[in-house]
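This part of the workshop introduces the protein records we will be handling. A learned vocabulary of local backbone shapes supplies the integers on the structure line. Getting from the letters to the tokens is the skill we practise here. As an example, a complete record with its sequence and its structure tokens follows.
=====
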Amino acid sequence: MANIKSQKKRALTNLKRQNAKAGQKSELKTAIKKVLLAVEAKDVEAATAAYNTANKCLDKAVVSHIKNNNYAARQKSRLAKAVNSIQK
């Protein structure tokens, strides 16, 4: 642990931020899994609703610098392709 007061504060804020980001990462992974499970079950309505939620989570992750823009675009494309495959 640091000896300087400002560094002690910084260490605490880093831990808080780390915990907040861990929660957002977990939420994002769960949203993506829900889409894939709905696609696997061939439930079009649930898959579409889960896809919209996942898109929202991906956009939030990009804005808050948790995930890269290319990662989000790749996931959106992959999930859209999966959802569209069961709509035909």
